[in-house]
Amino acid sequence: MSGIRAFWALILSLSLAACSTGGINVGDTGPFAPGVDRRGDAVDGVEVGHRLIAAGEFELAIKSFNRAALDRGGYDGEILSALGTANLGLGRLGQAETLLRRATTEFDPVPEDLNNLGVVLMERGETYEAVQVLRRAFALDDGESTLIRDNLRLALAKIENSDTLDENENQYKLVRRGSSDYLIRSADRI
User: Fold this and answer.
1) Using alpha carbons only, what angle is made at residue 44 by residues 81 and 114, rounded to the nearest 5 degrees?
2) Architecture per CATH, 43-189
């Protein structure tokens, strides 16, 4: 019995020795996490949403963009585009198309928004309209974006080779690239 007591006494003394001599620093606030500084500036919900998209957290990004819309007093082109991109990441092509169309028709179109709309249209099998949208994006961007150029090139190739591509309907897949742009890649290149 004394061997067991000695063992536990040794364990207790070693565990106490491992603790810091200062213990928990309670200070003025106690042992709890610091509170919220209500005088500080809040981080913009759109910025948070874009970070969540980059992290692959599309559902949380949608919530953040909706909160940002409440803070801004409504949906603007930036928020609609961001919501469309988040839905695109979730594979909700119908919702993504609706939101991206609103962003590009109700507000001044941005090349990235048109690119994402073109990607959605390609995935939905609307290749001819996708080519027109991607051409518009390419023109607005002055041909500087290799991403938009590559998507336009793939859409044109799909139209030119439509006889051979009909056999494999799902040849193209969406690949997330950057924070909110998508590139269509052939399934054999993924």
Assistant:
1) 15
2) Alpha Horseshoe (1.25)
